[in-house]
Amino acid sequence: MINKNQRFIIKTLVSSLIRRRSRMAIALLGVAIGATVLLGMVTLCYDIPRQMGQEFRSYGANMLLMPANNQSTMSMADVTKAVKLLPQDKLLGVTPFRYDAIRSNQHPYTIVGTDFKQVIKTSPYWQIEGKLPEHPNEILIGTDIANFAKLTIGSTMPVTGKSKQNARFDEDLTITGIVKTGRSEDSFIFIALHDLEQFLEESDQAEVVEVSITATQDELKHDIEIIKKQSDSIEPHLIKWVTQSESSVLGKLSSLLYLVTFVVLMLTMICVATTMMTVVMERRKEIGLKKAIGANNRSIAKEFLAEGLILGVLGGIIGVICGLIFAQVISTNVFGRTINVEFYLIPTTVVVSAIVTVIACLIPVKRALEVEPALVLRGE
């Protein structure tokens, strides 16, 4: 139960806030803006690695699995075991590749067997004219080959080669699409891995496996160490230009967001301190009168700090609501996705807002405690 003294203190605080509602509204607005930016920016900082990680996956895979011990190929069964060691909820795609040399109309080419359903996950940057192969003996050719051999979608491309048992194969392959990447893929012929294995008379083998996974560079390094410990036949590698670019961008962006948050919190403190300083100047006679009738410095300090605490909590609550909306709007407009909110940040934001406001009140409180009753009551 609240006793009479506590009720009097609460009534005094509420009365003081209401009588100076215009000034307190300014301070409340400053705290609310600070809390809005704090929750919004920190939420973005926590969720940006996930958001940016998905954006960076459009630039291709970030991990390679290759044969260990100088072997030319690796078993797909071993690849499957290695992939299972990765966090499955973050895994976006796993694409095997098998290479072989063939000839078409006396010209040498490189044919690549792959899984087309997976390649669009690990290499979304591929620009494909036409469609991906869906049936046996259908192929996708690079734009350089299409230009050189004057081939179009629907054309038939005769190829010859040798299997791993040195048996000759001759096939007529139908072109269903032309791929353009601006990279080495433009000079390759792509076919379903199963079809190439039939030509080579050797199955369940891959030379390179691209893995696309949503993870930071440190997390990828940790995953690589796990695979190295668990598998003797697989050698995992980072695709450094992707992971380093991702880490660099994320680091700079997070630093910028934290800097902006810090600056806004400093401005919030200045706004609250200035407002409370004005309030102290307006209440000099009231403070002097309280001291004259026996109020001590501790009770006066508690009153001002309590006012600051109320402002901080109310501003923090308003800022939490606005901050969640702010973070969602930014995430939707920039990344096209909703943001994942860490709910423990909500009470943390309110607490930080209250602490910042109380700290901002310390200088005004110090000025209030320096008021001399005799001088003030004489009008000096």
* Total number of domains: 2
Biggest β-sheet description: 10 strands, mixed
Proportion in helices: 55-70%
Spatial separation of the terminal alpha carbons: 43 Å
- Topology as H/E string? HHEEHEEHEEHEEEHEEHEHHHHHH
Number of strands: 12
Q: Give the count of helical stretches.
A: 13
Structural class: alpha+beta
| Contiguous uncertain segments of 5+ residues | none
Instruction: Identify the overall geometry.
Output: elongated
What integer value in Å does the Rg equal? Answer: 34 Å
Features:
alpha+beta, 2 domains, ten-stranded mixed beta sheet, two-stranded antiparallel ribbon
Topology:
Elements: H1 4-19, H2 21-56, E1 63-67, E2 74-75, H3 76-84, E3 91-104, E4 107-114, H4 116-122, E5 127-130, E6 138-142, H5 143-149, E7 156-162, E8 168-180, E9 188-192, H6 193-200, E10 205-206, E11 208-213, H7 217-230, E12 234-238, H8 240-282, H9 284-292, H10 297-335, H11 345-360, H12 362-369, H13 373-377
Parallel strand pairs: 4-9, 6-8
Antiparallel strand pairs: 1-11, 1-12, 2-10, 3-4, 3-11, 5-8, 6-9, 7-8
Helix pairs in contact: 2-8, 2-10, 2-11, 8-11, 8-12, 10-11, 10-12
